[in-house]
């Protein structure tokens, strides 16, 4: 059985933010000039991260969360339990709407997000989410 995620207060958010900032330093954002980094804890103890990677065809840019969920899956899967996102100054940033959906797939409503308004469950950031459960009869 998968253990319940640690409570928000038991998590070293500063350390997780440092991983996100390091990821942000690798962003490829020449078009927006807006680097983003993300990091998350996985229920087996791993940490995964990502940065945004833009494209000359602007609409094809990849948000940092795309890299994060790709690394999650590539390195063994599992469930995201705690997540943070930072902008180019290292300040905490809210994930965009599309990326909340990506996070929902791999973390569900209980995933804890560090936001400028404090630590919140994804259910508060993406209410009434559409998810895998809607596809099962
Ligand atoms: N961006 C992310 O990487 N994640 C988010 O959650 C917010 C937005 C990126 C996309 C684009 O490369 C840049 O920030 C400006 O929108």
From TrEMBL:
Q: Which GO terms describe its molecular function?
A: cytidine deaminase activity; zinc ion binding
Which Gene Ontology BP annotations are present? nucleobase-containing small molecule metabolic process; pyrimidine-containing compound metabolic process
All copies of domain CMP/dCMP-type deaminase, residue ranges: 11-133
- CDD domains to which the protein is assigned, alphabetical: cytidine_deaminase (cd01283)
Matching InterPro entries: CMP_dCMP_dom, Cyt/Deoxycyt_deaminase, Cytidine_deaminase-like
Record's GO cellular component terms? cytosol
Q: Which residues cross the membrane?
A: none
The record's family statement is: Belongs to the cytidine and deoxycytidylate deaminase family.
What name has this protein been given in UniProt?
Cytidine deaminase
């Amino acid at each position: 059985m998968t253990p319940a995620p640690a409570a928000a207060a038991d998590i070293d958010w500063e350390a997780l933010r440092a991983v996100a900032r390091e990821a942000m330093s690798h962003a490829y954002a020449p078009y927006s000039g807006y680097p983003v980094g993300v990091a998350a804890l996985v229920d087996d103890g791993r940490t995964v991260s990502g940065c945004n990677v833009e494209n000359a065809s602007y609409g094809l840019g990849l948000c940092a969360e795309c890299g994060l969920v790709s690394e999650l899956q590539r390195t063994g899967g599992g469930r995201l339990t705690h997540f943070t996102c930072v902008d180019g100054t290292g300040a905490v940033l809210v994930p965009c709407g599309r990326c909340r959906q990506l996070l929902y797939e791999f973390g569900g409503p209980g995933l804890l997000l560090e936001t400028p308004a404090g630590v919140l469950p994804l259910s508060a950031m993406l209410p009434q989410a559409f998810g895998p459960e809607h596809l099962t009869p």
